């Protein structure tokens, strides 16, 4: 199920609960809608609303941390990619083949991430993609330095490409996360109860229905944002790939 579909389901559940509250108000006996009864309902709903607000804030904060971490890893990877290419350029013309292959692999990776296709992104997290990246590391290890300077440059290049691989794998793994399903279900249930109680304590008129509609729309929108920021490499809300594209234009220079 896509994030849009999930948000629509949440909206249907929450707004449907609000409409059910309005309907229930017309069917309950009068003493169930007394001031004392409504006050008790409002106290219970206040407790549920507090728990829902805490969980919603926790999920938003967690999703934002995931988004920021992946964004930082992209910027860090772009800087490391440029640095590695410059180290190989200093090594000498012997690394031209490695640099050309490296530029090709970086361009292919950017193209796959920019496509935002889940199947292609899953391949980047797979063993085959990891082996292709490791083959570059093996090519660097196979270099035969002829001087102490080249030996130091080779060691630096091997270290940098290791950092690039670690950063890429970390970003790919974090970008495939999702909020815990039981927590998400509990949040939606609490929101549905809150909107139902709002409908129960208000008369059914256009103003109330519009207000409940906007409340349900806002909560489902928040769920949508949480899901989107937990997958920052695909979907509507994605991290910027401009640092990687800029790095690609500088490779091989």
Task: Describe the secondary-structure layout.
Elements: H1 3-27, H2 35-91, H3 96-115, H4 118-124, H5 127-141, H6 148-174, H7 181-200, H8 206-229, H9 242-250
Helix pairs in contact: 1-7, 1-8, 2-6, 2-7, 2-8, 2-9, 3-5, 5-6, 7-8
In words, what does this structure look like?
- The mean pLDDT is 85.
- This protein has helices at residues 3-27, 35-91, 96-115, 118-124, 127-141, 148-174, 181-200, 206-229, 242-250.
- The chain has 253 residues and is mainly α.
- Helix 2 (35-91) packs antiparallel against helix 6 and helix 5 (127-141) packs antiparallel against helix 6 (148-174).
- It has one domain.
- The chain is rod-shaped, with a radius of gyration of 27 Å.
Key structural traits:
single chain; 253 residues; mainly alpha; 81% helix; DUF4239 domain-containing protein; membrane; DUF4239; transmembrane helix; transmembrane
Describe this structure in a few short sentences.
Helix content is 81%, strand content 0%.
Q: Roughly how many Å apart are the termini?
A: 44 Å
The tally of strands reads 0
Structural class: mainly alpha
Largest sheet, in brief, is: none
Q: Note the total helix count.
A: 9
* Overall pLDDT metric: 85
Regions with little confidence, pLDDT below 50 for 5+ residues: none
Cα-based radius of gyration, to the nearest Å: 27 Å
What is the helix/strand order? HHHHHHHHH
Strand content bin:
under 5%
**Percent of residues in helical segments?**
over 70%
The best one-word shape is rod-shaped
Number of domains: 1
